[in-house]
Design brief:
The complex is a heterodimer of chains A (242) and B (317).
Chain A lengths: L2 E12 L2 E12 L3 E5 L6 H9 L6 E6 L2 E2 L5 H7 L1 E3 L12 H11 L7 H13 L15 H14 L4 E5 L7 H16 L3 E5 L3 H7 L2 E6 L2 E7 H5 L2 H8 L5
Parallel strand pairs in A: 3-8, 3-9, 6-7, 7-8
Antiparallel strand pairs in A: 1-2, 1-4, 4-5, 9-10
Chain B lengths: L2 H17 L6 H27 L6 H15 L5 H23 L4 H27 L4 E2 L6 H24 L1 H11 L1 H6 L4 H23 L5 E2 L1 H4 L3 H13 L6 H19 L4 H15 L3 H9 L13 H4 L2
Antiparallel strand pairs in B: 1-2
The chains are: A alpha/beta (242), B mainly alpha (317).
Chain lengths: 242, 317
């Protein structure tokens, strides 16, 4: 497998605070990689740097060999990166179908009119929202709003999907449904980088993990090995005498 | 939508309005010209400001540019070419200004847009007195007021059709997404800056054309007349009064307010400015979402076609 996304020596400083410190890792084509770490370790900052919401202070990012470092979000999106957000972001003045059409209408191979309606409905069915297209998105339950967000991200036909705690806040039943949804994407060959605190999901979905602590990478490798790594356990739980 | 009644009704109204100059006297024709001008200005203002939340006081900058272009060029080239040149200058200024300033937010943009109008006025004044050696100019075009009226009426129709079409286009969807959440907008591939600049430019070109078409009415033109900031304020208050987020809102606001302003200026010429100021305050306090918004509140829960970011608490999120 060749690397689709290459993160090379990314550093992000906010004034005196270094949120990401010389971080490097690759995501292979078709891989589902988890970016782990305690709260405040810089995971979401890294997601924002990849999607273009933040510009890195140093370092470079390439997608399929092409530099995307520092491009604004709409250009990163055009290169094939789609994402969901840590706090679910829906478009409240639009209905469910329009939320998805919004992404279809502005992707590189844009759809509009009847074609967009049909494609939106197809994506909604795949996300488990069949026949909900006409509802106002605000009236949906939390997990259904997350489904809308996922359908919207997939509508962009991404080569790389960024999921920022997409499974957070779901109850056990919903969690199983959510894991199955992402597993379906993985089996269809989608490359996914996810930030996640739900270890059950990480174990089920990812064969590889990168762990961050205070901005730096402290582990990178096979999921089981990484999760049992003493350094990783210490970063999450603190040392015994702390 | 009640389009089945709406289209014939609008067409009938248009025919009546187009025939009006054949039946009314010069006073009423003058009134109709002013009305058509402000309906167009308010609709063009709302096309940009009502959909993006950028409250602009630059209306008169473009209006004045249009009027002055006609004053300078009307004897040098045929009238239709003059209109094209005016539109081109308006477009150029709008793109330049848009690129430089649409990253300003809220009150900073308001202040900037007001400053822009003053800057253009001072530049024109400076050019006329220092380089050209005169301040005022005469405009002699050999067509009557009814022609000015018909041109403005046509421009008003084009503006409303354009607003309607944009509401159904990808541009309109981009604007709704931006109004909802700029982060999402940029992450699904919308170029936010260009979306706003496109709309600003369309709105500015229409305003420029209103000034260009109306300018022969004055015969004598000078910067203090065509760059009068009251034009910007009246446009804004008409659009807000009617409801800046709706297709017909600005027109419905412009008609009663224009007639009221005319009546006030005729009957209370000495206190006109004070009364105007009071009216502005009353409207902003009592109808933050416009008359159309009032009807929505009273007669149903139809959701807004756009969430006007300008009146933040109206959206309630």
């Amino acid at each position: 497998m060749s690397a689709l996304l290459e993160i090379q020596n990314i550093t992000k400083r906010f004034g005196g605070l270094t949120a990401v410190d010389d971080l490097s890792f690759d995501v292979a084509e078709g891989e589902v990689l988890a970016l782990l770490g305690p709260n405040g370790s810089g995971k979401t900052t890294m997601m924002n740097i990849i999607s273009g919401a933040l510009k890195p202070t140093e370092g470079r990012i390439t997608l399929a060999g092409e530099q995307i470092t520092g491009l604004p979000p709409h250009r990163v999106a055009a290169k094939g990166v789609a994402r969901t957000f840590q706090l679910v972001k829906i478009l409240p003045s639009l209905d469910v179908r329009e939320n998805v059409i919004a992404a279809l209408a502005f992707r590189r191979d844009a759809l509009w009119g009847q074609e967009a309606q049909d494609e939106a409905d197809r994506l909604l069915v795949n996300a488990g929202l069949s026949a909900r297209g006409g509802e106002m998105v605000e009236n949906l339950t939390y997990i259904d709003q997350k489904r809308v967000e996922l359908a919207r991200a997939l509508a962009s036909q991404p080569r790389l999907l960024l999921l920022d705690e997409w499974l957070a806040g779901l109850n056990p039943t919903e969690l199983r449904v959510g894991i199955d949804l992402i597993a379906g994407l993985r089996d269809a060959g989608m490359t996914i980088l996810l930030v996640e605190h739900v270890m059950e999901a990480v174990r089920a979905l990812c064969n590889r993990c990168v762990v961050m602590n205070v901005g730096s990478k402290i582990a990178d490798g096979d999921t089981d090995a990484v999760l049992n790594d003493p350094g990783v356990v210490r970063a999450y739980l603190g040392t015994a005498d702390a | 939508m009640k389009l089945t009644y709406g289209i014939p009704a609008a067409l009938a109204a248009l025919v009546v309005l187009a025939c009006a100059p054949l039946f009314v006297g010069p006073y009423w024709l003058g009134l109709l010209i002013g009305l058509a001008g402000y309906v167009t200005l308010a609709s063009a203002w709302a096309l940009f400001s009502g959909r993006t939340g950028y409250v602009s006081l630059a209306t008169v900058a473009f209006f004045g540019i249009g009027a002055y272009t006609v004053a300078v060029l009307s004897e040098a080239m045929p009238y239709p070419v003059v209109l094209l040149v005016a539109a081109g200058i308006g477009l150029g200024v709008a793109l330049l200004v848009g690129l430089a300033t649409l990253r300003l937010e809220g009150v900073y943009f308001v202040v900037f847009s007001f400053g822009l109008a003053e800057l253009v006025r001072q530049l024109v004044t400076w050019y006329e007195t220092s380089i050209n050696g005169t301040l005022g100019r005469y405009i002699f075009l050999d067509f009557g007021p009814e022609h000015i009226y018909w041109q403005l009426l046509a421009l008003a129709v084009v503006t409303l059709l354009l607003t309607w079409w944009i509401g159904r286009s990808r541009l309109g969807l981009a604007l709704k997404v931006i109004a909802d959440d700029e982060t999402v907008a940029s992450h699904i591939g919308i170029n936010i800056a260009w979306t706003k600049i496109t709309l600003f430019a369309v709105s500015a070109v229409i305003m420029t054309l209103v000034g260009a078409i109306q300018s022969p009415r004055w015969t004598y033109v000078e910067p203090a007349i065509v760059f009068n900031p009251t034009v910007s304020f009246m446009t804004l208050i008409m659009a807000l009064f009617g409801g800046a987020g709706r297709l017909w809102g600005p027109a419905l606001g412009a008609i009663p307010l224009f007639l009221l302003f005319e009546w006030l200026s005729a009957n209370f010429p000495d206190h006109y400015s004070i009364l105007l100021g009071l009216l502005f305050i009353i409207i902003v306090f009592l109808l933050p979402r416009g008359v159309v918004g009032l009807f929505d509140d009273r007669f149903g829960t139809r959701r807004a076609e756009v969430q006007p970011a300008a009146s933040g608490e109206g959206a309630g999120k």
